[in-house]
Write a structure and sequence with these properties.
- The chain folds into 2 domains: 6-117, lpxc deacetylase, domain 1 (Ribosomal Protein S5, domain 2, 2-Layer Sandwich), CATH 3.30.230; 124-274, lpxc deacetylase, domain 2 (lpxc deacetylase, domain 1, 2-Layer Sandwich).
- Helices cover 21% and strands 35% of the residues.
- It is built from 6 helices and 19 strands.
- It has helices spanning 73-82, 104-113, 174-177, 185-193, 224-237, 255-265, and strands at residues 6-8, 12-17, 24-31, 36-41, 44-47, 53-55, 61-64, 67-69, 86-91, 115-117, 124-127, 131-135, 138-143, 148-156, 161-167, 182-184, 206-208, 243-251, 272-274.
- The longest helix has 14 residues, at 224-237.
- The model has no long low-confidence stretch (mean pLDDT 96).
- The structure holds zinc ion.
- The site of zinc ion has 5 residues, from α1 and α5.
- The site of zinc ion (ZN) has 5 residues, from α1 and α5.
Length: 275
């Protein structure tokens, strides 16, 4: 468990294609003294913060003026798991590369770069009062607790059905880091017709067929899909700017509700404390 602000110990790059644009993108990671994670695109700095989130329909997208960076959530989760609090990410396109659909390659890059610790604290946000947001049958809530504890439920058509998972030791939950994004087979056509997921393939997403997983090697974990929803939530919650401590319970949540929860949390300073 990290106690202080940290950054990466050396510069590194990661390249890959964007899921929606299908275009090659390169990220360059630079150490940062200032607190927080921020992207730099076309000379514009965009803090990776919940109040910069402008679109949550297919991924978490941040914007500053007319410059946007999409699909930041898996990268943000990698920062969380690596214990990195301060970093500048230079990006030469509008979307973070999808890589294998998980946070694994980002996490490996950060692990190889190493962690540099600053003397400054103020990296934890402790929830002081319960906060909840919901939309139809989807909801996410957080209650005071001294650790981060996440229980996630999802429900999709067969062969997925209902899945539930609780992670108590989130900082060391390595099966979350490499769990991949997924889609239902019947949704691919509509997404492609809308001009999205141009870079989507079985190399970067799990595709759920009518009676089995389409990917030739199947799933990485029996609960890979619910694991990935936890990965998304961890990445989205890290746009709070802090390592959140609290008991999280979520049912069918996504990027929209995850962002709404942070907005609700920060709407009253009595809801949390920073240390
Ligand atoms: Zn995801």
């Amino acid at each position: 468990m990290i106690k202080r602000q940290t950054t990466i110990n050396r510069i590194f790059k990661i390249s890959g294609i964007g899921l929606h644009t299908g275009r090659q993108v390169t990220l360059e990671f630079l150490p940062r003294r200032e607190f927080g994670i921020a992207f730099v695109c076309k000379g514009t700095i965009i803090p990776a913060r919940y109040d910069m989130v402008a679109d949550t329909r297919l991924s978490t997208q941040i914007s500053n003026g007319d410059i946007s960076v999409a699909t930041i959530e898996h990268l943000m989760a990698a920062f969380y798991f690596s214990g990195i609090t301060n970093c500048l990410v230079y990006i030469d396109g509008p979307e973070v590369p999808i890589l294998d659909g998980s946070a694994w390659e980002f996490y490996q890059g950060m692990w190889k770069a190493g962690v540099y610790e600053f003397p400054d604290s103020g990296v934890y946000l402790k929830v002081q009062r319960p906060v909840e947001v919901s939309h139809k049958d989807a909801w996410v809530r957080i209650k005071p607790l001294n650790t981060l504890d996440i229980t996630m439920s999802i429900e999709f058509r067969q062969p997925v059905g209902k899945q539930k998972k609780r992670v108590t030791d989130v900082e060391n939950a390595f099966s979350i880091i490499n769990s991949r994004t997924f889609t239902l087979l019947e949704e691919i056509e509509a997404i492609k017709k809308a001009g999205l997921a141009k870079g989507g393939s079985l190399d970067n997403a799990v595709v759920i067929g009518m009676d089995d997983i389409v990917n030739p090697h199947g799933l990485r974990y029996r609960k890979e899909l619910v694991n990935h929803k936890i990965l998304d939530l961890i990445g989205d919650f890290y746009t709070s700017g802090y390592r959140i401590l609290g008991k999280v319970e979520a049912n069918r949540t996504g990027h929209y509700l995850n962002n709404m929860l942070l907005r609700e949390l920060f709407s009253d300073t009595a809801n949390y404390s920073i240390y």
